[in-house]
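Note to self: user wants both folds in one dump. Writing first protein now.
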Amino acid sequence: MDKSAVTSGVLGAADGVTSIAGVVAGGAAAGVSHSALAVTAIGGALAATVSMGGAQWLAESTPDLPAVLTMAAGTALGSGLPALPLLFVGGSLAWALVAVVALAMVAVVGETRYRVSPTSRMRCYGATAGVLGAGALAGWLAGSYL
């Protein structure tokens, strides 16, 4: 797989996990039920997958199909995996599992970024975690104050 396709997958995964972290944190702060939040998060994951894959397709005069597919797959994984615990468990365990899955996605995205563009491994992980944290904080603030 070429570097463009890998980069697209990393971007999709980072976008997906950040978006859904914001949705989940916002819903949690607003006191939304687990089942309603799960449906919202899965719907958001599906919409994000179509959006990011479609945007990748539209961004190029001659679409690069592998880049489009890895963008969509990365977005599906990044946004779908953190939402899954909400479908199967409730209470504190669900939130702990969401956090574990989101942090695992940070590790995957950070490591892939490092392998595609080797700079500093800690910089790659830290930047990825910072973006995820900003998305979650934005969602939490919206859920708390709107």
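First done. Writing the second protein, which came from a different request thread.
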Amino acid sequence: MPFTLTPQTFVAKWRKVTLKESAATKEHFLDLCGLVGHPTPAAADAEGTHFTFEYGAAKLGGGQGFADVFKRGFFGWEYKGKHANLDKAYLQLLQYRAALHNPPLLVVSDIETIVIHPNFVNRANTPTTLTLDDLLTPAGLERLRAIFYHPALLAVDELTGLIMAVGYVRPSKSLADVEVRSVRKKWKDKAFTAAISRQEIEHYTAELGEPLDEHIQTVLSALQGIAADLGLG
């Protein structure tokens, strides 16, 4: 059973930490695991093959490096010291991503900010930033949880917009009243949210290897969990 940490305890602890990168990052990541109720790397993978710190990775163009944290099929994660340039950390991950089996997310972080870069093909892949203050909100916690459990939720802008639009036109204006069949009904109405490409959603879902209805349900359930913050509670 993974240990748990409240958002308030996590934020209070890390807001005052001034340790250097090497002294802080592993404990920071372990605390993130506690915050989302996820097993730590050693607990989940005793052999260090699919979820581990310091994962060896060949660099694009030659040479060897290490990703600070790697979870196969989910993310590569690179840390920098407090207030460091996280763009440099992202460039490091781009050098490693082939060796990391092209994970869906490339995450860079110091102890105050987490920047999530989706790594999907045929996508705009707009990054998402989480601050310590964001982690005190339900929406911020859901995004953090998505890194560990459902990375696809961080690259579903079109489907998210469609589902939210379905909620807005319900008499109750509540996502609690939205079902997969509600979304599918509006899906067929090409005049409804005409700017949202159904074809792009279908293409992306096919890449995931997930049936469309299951994918809609996954995204819908995640949005229902933060409906109040979206004004659709």
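Dump finished. Worth passing along: The two ends are 31 Å apart (CA to CA).
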